[in-house]
Please model this.
Amino acid sequence: MSWKIQPQRSSSVALLHRGGGATNPDQVGLISREDAMVALAEPGIEPCEVCRPDTGLCAELGIYPLGPAGLGSHTGLMSPISTHHHRFRDPQSTKYDFLGSVRVRCPDCDKVAHVGTAPDPAGVRDQGAFVPRCLVCRNCGTAKESRRGGLLLHRDPSGSAGDPFFGARLRLQTEIRHGRVWAYNLEHLDLIRRFVQAPLREGIPWHDHGRKMTVVARLPAWMQQAKNRDEVLRAIARIHATLLRT
Model:
């Protein structure tokens, strides 16, 4: 399978098409799967709504089309692992559960860096949220350490999402018209994906005092709406595609 980019015209964005389809029978200028996945990560390129090139690309990421009637519909996206279990049950994970390893952009070279628990001289492996952290970049050698107790989960909704220890920009994030989709690591991103793509969502009982503090309970309203499901899942697929560059 191949793909092709239709150049941007006045007052419109560039479009990605399936190569050789009815909308683009010309075989000139075809690009590879990897180039197409990278193209979808660019803010100025959108998938064609007719030939749906993103469906095939999402399959590369382990996400397949699924509608209310089952496979083959373009009304949503579903992981093959979940094709027989369309119900999402809140695992009651909070943001603190994903702070063990955070993917960020190095503040010095802008390449991928990791924020994790700093080594303890006593050999004690404390994974709590308030233990010292270190930021390490293998590309330029940057290494920083935070002090115990330094934690800031709040961020500016209009700005770039950052890690709560150093304020470095998160590696896993992208902007869509409704807002920003972001995650601390791939496990965090996968939880959001599973929640968004599920047509049936089982919440936590109302009498559970922690029900309002979970990751999925605190997702913005626009991310929880079914009408935005495809757009949010495409954004998550674009985040995965950007990892090909690293």
Remarks:
- Confidence is low (pLDDT under 50) at residues 61-85.
